[in-house]
Design goal:
The chain has 5 helices and 4 strands. The protein is α+β, with helices and mostly antiparallel strands. It has a single domain, classed as Endonuclease, Chain A. The chain has a 4-stranded mixed β-sheet, with helices on both faces. The longest helix is centred in the middle third of the chain and has 24 residues. The chain starts with 9 loop residues before the first helix and ends with a helix. The model has no long low-confidence stretch (mean pLDDT 93).
Length: 125
């Protein structure tokens, strides 16, 4: 697991490129002043975007398979990841931020749909 990146993953980089191409630059990366350090933050708009990997965060869309060995360990790891994700979103919302979560499979399968959804999200703020 040492080789697994926590920041600047391929899906994050892809989403940042899509946002820039759509004219939504001016974001901050892993902004420490926001609760939960979102992957992408628009501080002036109080918008936080998390880019979640399907395997590690247990995507509800593609429902990745679980490892066959050490199932207890993995189930606990996945549960803790989901709890942490929910806690971060709650902290941000309590501080007046709007939160969006983008899944790795969404970026892979429908990048234009992701940009469309985020465009609406960013304009509504």
């Amino acid at each position: 697991m040492k080789g697994n990146r926590g920041q600047n993953t391929k899906p994050e980089i892809q989403l940042r490129r899509l946002l820039r191409d759509a004219g939504y630059s001016g974001y901050r990366l892993h902004w420490k002043k926001a609760p939960g350090r979102p992957d992408i933050a628009y501080p002036g708009r109080r918008i936080a975007i998390f880019v979640n990997g399907c395997f590690w965060h247990r995507c509800p869309h593609c429902q990745p398979s679980s490892p066959k060995s050490h199932t207890g360990y993995w189930q606990r790891k996945f549960d803790l990841n989901r709890e942490r994700d929910a806690r971060k979103a709650e902290q941000l919302e309590a501080a007046g931020w709007r939160v969006a979560t983008i899944w790795e499979c969404e970026l892979r399968d429908d990048p234009s749909g992701v940009v469309e959804r985020l465009s609406r999200f960013l304009v509504d703020s």
